[in-house]
Amino acid sequence: MKEPLLPDELCSVVSLAAQEDPCGTAVAHERYVLIEVPLPWENDLTASRYFPAVLKDALQQAKERGITFRLLGFAPEKEQSSPPGLRRIQLYTRPAAPFAEYLREEFVMPEEKLGALIAAAFGLQPQAVAAEAASGREAAAPAGGAASGCSGEQNGEAGTAGAAAGASPSLAPFAAYACSSDGIRDLFVCTHGTYDICCGKLGYPVYQALRSSHEAGSEGRLRVWRVNHIGGHRLAPTLVDFPSGRYWGPLQLDSLDELVNQRGDAAALYRQYRGWGGLQPHEQRVDREIWQREGWEWMSYERFGTSRQQEDGTTHVQIHFRRPGSASDEAYEAYVRETGEITITGCHMKEALKCKQYEVFGLVKLC
Q1: Distances in Å between the alpha carbon of 303 and those of 27, 231, 284, 300, 324?
Q2: How far apart are the C-alpha atoms of 26 and 251, rounded to whole Å?
Q3: Tell me, which fold does domain 7-25+184-365 have in CATH?
Q4: What confidence tens digit (pLDDT) does each residue in 317-352 have?
Q5: CB-based burial of residue 139 (10 Å sphere; 0-12 exposed, 13-18 middle, 19+ buried)?
Q6: Which residues of the chain are in CATH 3.40.30.10 domains?
Q7: Chain CA centroid to CA 211, Å
Q8: Model's pTM, two decimal places?
Q9: What is the DSSP secondary structure assignment for residue 335, as one 8-state letter?
Q10: d(Cα 251, Cα 62) in Å, to the nearest integer?
Q11: Apex 352 CA angle, 351 and 355, nearest 5
């Protein structure tokens, strides 16, 4: 049994003391699979008591086919839970550049059909998928209300139509289970204490604050969930913001208003922004500097980045973007260089973590 850690032995405390810059640590996944998994969670999410076995099998098949994705589990509170026998699942796909948000497809569906949904989404066994999706669909997914797990405008004909508008054709057989999540923002706060104590100890207060002070008064436009390990526990408390795909951490409770409302002093969150999953690490660092110059509107612009390493070891970065309603493209360029390395220890790490640090210089607007 591991000995309890003192506060100064937490990797997140060590990181803060060393003034580690979190930017550039967002992960650029092509696909995410987020599945409702009630607590408790094991270190390995798929070994958890309530992880659906049929989903585990389908994801394993996808891995064997070389399909890459990030699996995350989120735990609902009682009032968020799906009805018995059903699970909420969200699929996020990174669209072609330029873009500002991931494509989201959300379903509340029978557990036994989760494997067929994944097979359809990833192009596995298409004929079997259609048959499995159709079997018992009418009985399992009545229109509207609590039975389907989608409420109000998220359900019934309106929900199916809203979801189908941006849905993948391969998922059409599952339209009866689809929920419209247009205009809804999901914040997934890492509280996975069995993976790392920092996320459990520091993440939960942020989760509670977001739930009580922001989700409660959002009229359904904001949902806050507990999620398992998203990476970067030394930057706890940390969260991923969807559908944008932005990562934040280490978060401070007094900065949550700015994060949720996306207005006010952007500088207050400068050292709490890990980056956007639509860009590579050095591009994320330049992107943060542009955000500080352009303001919160920058977050809604469709954009993409390019990176090229120079002979002197620096990296040349360009960020191309288009303002909403504009017919012309614009761009910034800058350079990124390494400034040193810090050492992170704590949380029973077997080996110290060496983290390179960088700075952005020469930022200019090209057009």
Answers
A1: 17, 24, 12, 9, 11
A2: 14
A3: Glutaredoxin (3.40.30)
A4: 999 999 998 889 999 999 999 999 999 988 777 788
A5: exposed
A6: 7-25+184-365
A7: 17
A8: 0.90
A9: E
A10: 34
A11: 135
